[in-house]
Amino acid sequence: MVASNNVVSIYAHRGFWFGRFPENSREAFAYATQQGFRSECDVWMSADGQPIVMHDETLDRTTTGTGPVVEYSMSQLQRFKCRIGKQEFSPPPVLSEVADDLGLVEIKPASVELVKTVIRTMVSRKWMLQSFDAANIRAAEQIDPELPIAFLVEDEAGIRIGIDDGWRIHLDHALLDNRLAKILRDADLPFGAWTVNTEPDIKRVLDHGVSAIISDHPDLVRKVAQQLGFACQ
């Protein structure tokens, strides 16, 4: 089975970074845009209330800094560099600096205030908010009922919550089998999969009817999807 409209949205996971640039960096987002992809990103709040693009709660793995993101102001964070291995690039971006490259923004912490700030920052752009935190999703619905939202899930219990609340679901691709795909289709809710990086997995999730794929290899997703007759956006 394929999605009824034969269209799939492709998001570059943390930018188009794999093997080239640091994830969630200005360079990764710019490269994704150059290659025709919208990016997915992750957001935390700085000590002075700015939405900072970073996957981890701490700076250690992907930057030259150390410690929790929330302990630094925006100006302090600009002293650090995003890095991949020993290569250093630009400082961690503030959301507004890369907003035009994004199609999917994940709110990492449980924070209604951050949800509000992200929505204000992304206003007038075509984008979707996603989060593992149900309270964040509910807050987004109240703040902007027209905003596309997705509930991130990594187990079947999360899928049940999403279905009960009528939310679009983005699930770990490893969960998606014939049984769960049927449950999602029967619920008449759009669903997407993350992080889908190999050709067999791309084909499998497309066959199950996903309308969105988040991948470290968006170019491979586009190639496979087009070969199967999907329009990519």
The total domain count is 1
Shape from CA axes? globular
Within CATH, the superfamily carries the name Phosphatidylinositol (PI) phosphodiesterase
Name the CATH class: Alpha Beta
Instruction: Let me know the average pLDDT.
Output: 96
In the sheet with the most strands, the strands line up as: 1-2-6-7-8-9-10-11
Task: Give the distance, in angstroms, between the N- and C-terminal Cα atoms.
Answer: 20 Å
Radius of gyration (CA) equals 17 Å
Give a short overview:
With 233 residues, the chain is of the alpha/beta class. It has helices at 26-34, 74-77, 95-98, 112-121, 134-143, 156-165, 178-186, 199-207, 218-227, and strands at 7-13, 38-45, 51-53, 83-84, 87-88, 102-107, 128-131, 149-153, 169-172, 191-194, 212-215, 231-232. The chain contains nine helices and twelve strands.
Please give a structural write-up.
With 233 residues, the chain is α/β, with parallel strands linked by helices. It has a single domain (7-232), classed as TIM Barrel, CATH 3.20.20. Helices cover 32% and strands 22% of the residues. The protein contains 9 helices and 12 strands. The strands form 2 sheets. It has an 8-stranded parallel beta barrel, surrounded by 6 helices. A two-stranded antiparallel ribbon has the order 4-5. Strand 2 and strand 3 (51-53) form a beta hairpin. Helix 4 packs across helix 5 (134-143) and helix 8 (199-207) crosses helix 9. The longest helix is centred in the middle third of the chain and has 10 residues, at 112-121.
